[in-house]
Amino acid sequence: MGSTPAPPNHNQSVSERLFTRAQAVMPSGYTRHLAVAKPYPIYADHAEGCWITDVEGNRKIDWINNFSALIHGHNKREIIDVLSAQAARLMSAVLPTEWEVELAEILCARIPSIERVRFMNSGTEANQIAVKAARAYTGKPKIAKMEGGYHGQFDLLEASFQSTPENWGDPRRPKATAYQAGHPQGLLDLVTILPLNDIEATREILRAEADQLAAVILDPQRLQLGMVQPDLAFLEMLREETERLGILLIFDEVWSLRAGHGGYQGKIGITPDLTTMGKIIGGGIPVGACGGKQEYMSVFEIDSGDPKIKHSGTFTANPMAMACGTTSLRLLTPGAFDDLAAKGDRLREGLAQIQHDLDLDGVVLGEGSISVLVMTRKPLRNYRDLAFAASTDLAARLPIIQKLLAEEQLLTMRGGFVGSTPMTNDDIDFTIAGARRAFTRFKAL
After folding, report:
1. What is the pLDDT of residues 94-140, one digit of tens each?
2. How does DSSP classify residue 392?
3. What is residue 249's DSSP assignment?
């Protein structure tokens, strides 16, 4: 039998009462660690456009947008209409629907690397499938990733996500370190860790391990929520070396697809072999996708018998996600991306002016619809630079800044601002004014 809920304490806030109930039925009261807040999280009630309202009735501009998934903000009318209509028509079935064909057509037309695509239910799953495809195509067992790179909750690719000076080894030849308790050594042995933006060291590692490496995977736009960016020269070297050595290059564009109409790869003109996607291609519904050149996606083909990789799933390409994703992408015209970028520029200019006027120990980074005010002036060229900055500057500052911004009706996380299409210039100016007040208070602490 389940636990009996405690009687309500009317001296508590609504969020506190909800958290008390949650603690009785979920580990520590949470089912999502990124939502952890002390002494308890604030629970959401409803949202509209770029504004979200909590159960206490407080409204904030949502600058998290569910970690970039809600590129159209909340309750976009066209998405709500298609979601409602599709729910009444067909929520899920074992049979395919026209929606998945339409979404696949859009992705193949827009994203330079994609000639064929398969759908799944999350970015994590997309990266799992991409790794399987690379191994099946090349016949090689190992995967290379960037030190500090995040590719979802797939334990193979969690290696060295948050390594520390005590275990990370030589900067030119980083060790593969466990991220979670129980991470098998056997999986760590199948991952090669690369030092971001060190062209010569990375080239040397790739050449030394070419006969074992099936693929290199990285987010081409950002490491650790936009704080560290791969140099274009580094990405060009990766493309050149992987192609020459017979290693597949995988771009994890689960986040960075929002950089432009053709994803980040379209923006920088570097085409990987496989691309993983999620977030914005679902219109707010859980989704993932893995696509690439027909040659590499042939591992899923059944035309000549059993495929090299068998892939399915109860909710894979479900019509709800496919309908919302298709509608979301149709709305994301080149003009929509230009508008997102223009508002991002406006925000970054405002934040940079605040940083200058208040002489804050920080720097404004970002592009397109993603911006971040990093509270350190130390150069951030790789994960280790970021880790050192976090240990001395960032770790203590970010929670304070996040709280001060929240008091100005700005919902943020880790100093980042993720934009959405319903945001207006008035919303940007509201944000800049609130940020100025928040950072003025922070400076006075």
Report:
1. 999 999 999 999 999 999 999 999 999 999 999 999 999 999 999 99
2. I
3. E
The one catalytic residue among 76, 132, 145, 279? 279
CA atoms within 13 A on the CB side of 40: 16
pLDDT tens-digit readout, 272-282: 999 999 999 99
Active site residue 279: yes
pLDDT tens digits, residue range 2-30? Answer: 555 555 566 789 999 999 999 999 999 99
Report the C-alpha gap between 382 and 242 in whole angstroms: 21
Q: In angstroms, rounded to a whole number, what is the distance separating the alpha carbons of residues 74 and 338?
A: 20
Q: Which pLDDT value is given to residue 7? A: 59
Partners of 53 in beta bridges: 46, 59
**Token couple for 381:** 């060229």
Instruction: For residues 300 and 307, give the distance between their C-alpha atoms in angstroms, rounded to a whole number.
Output: 5
CA distance 162 to 177: 8
The DSSP element (H or E) to which 344 belongs, if any, is helix 334-358
Give every CB contact of residue 204 below 8 A, 6+ residues apart in sequence. 172
- Residue 363 Cα distances to 77, 221, 415, angstroms: 37, 18, 11
Q: Which of the residues 150, 264, 296, 383 is marked catalytic?
A: 150
Catalytic residue chosen out of the listed positions 62, 219, 252, 385: 252
CA distance 423 to 402: 20
Q: CA 172 → CA 154, 155, 207, 234, 392, distances in Å?
A: 25, 23, 14, 15, 23
User: What is the side-by-side order of every strand in the sheet holding 416-418?
Assistant: 363-367, 370-374, 416-418
Report the helix count and the strand count for the chain, using DSSP H and E.
Answer: 15, 16
Tokens 């893995």 identify what position?
290
- Rounded to 10 deg, the angle between the 395-406 and 425-444 helix axes is 130
Annotation marks residue 81 as catalytic: no
Helix (H) or strand (E) holding 439, with range, is helix 425-444
